[in-house]
Amino acid sequence: MKRRSLSVPWRQRVALPPSGSPPSCLPLEPSCSAAWSPGAPVETQHEEQPRPLGSNQCLRPDSCFTSLEERYGPDIAGAAFVLKQGGAVKFQDQEWIRPNKHGRFSLKFLKFQNVPVEAVDASGCAINYHGLRSLLPLKELRSLWLRHCPHVDDWCLSRLHPLAGSLQELSLAGCPHISERGLACLHHLQSLCWLDISDLPAVSNPGLTRILVEEMLPSCQVLGADWTQGLRLGPEQQPRDTASPSPA
Description:
The chain is an alpha/beta fold. It has 5 helices and 7 strands.
């Protein structure tokens, strides 16, 4: 079977932040204290002396995220949540923002209140179904990397449909709990032009799955297993065991 190659506008792709291994991330713990107090005055968060966040503080997607969203808008709230998980964000026409090796980051990004988030790299983060709620209001999000996320599963993929109008790049490589059923939920994302579904251990037939995803998203370049991987061979194609003696 001859597979067609699709050209992708690589110049339009958002480059990943220059970093080595994926950042270590904090779990979503409901017992964590909020990073910002809803009643704190804005003057205490001024740009001249940004307040770093400690590793013992956690942004909860329920209370603190809602407070940030009401005050600064969904893009600032979503960026803060991703940064607190150890990920990186890129606002439109700005440089990548990521926490340092101690998990701390500056609050200078609050000045981008009217600038949309265009890329999120949450690779290796402990983001789950509930945590994805912070990304769904990002109406101009073009690139999303969820590589090697231990809690991203089929249910998470079923929740991405609100991003259908903007999302162009999606990486799910190395996620241990994504199967064929979850990938079928991506049919909503017809704006995708680049998708990485390589190294998914829960996918039983990687080659056939890639073919089906390519048919489901005809305008998207799909990275993953070779289309022959996992296909069953016919009796005439089965390799012969030359080490076994022939029956008499």
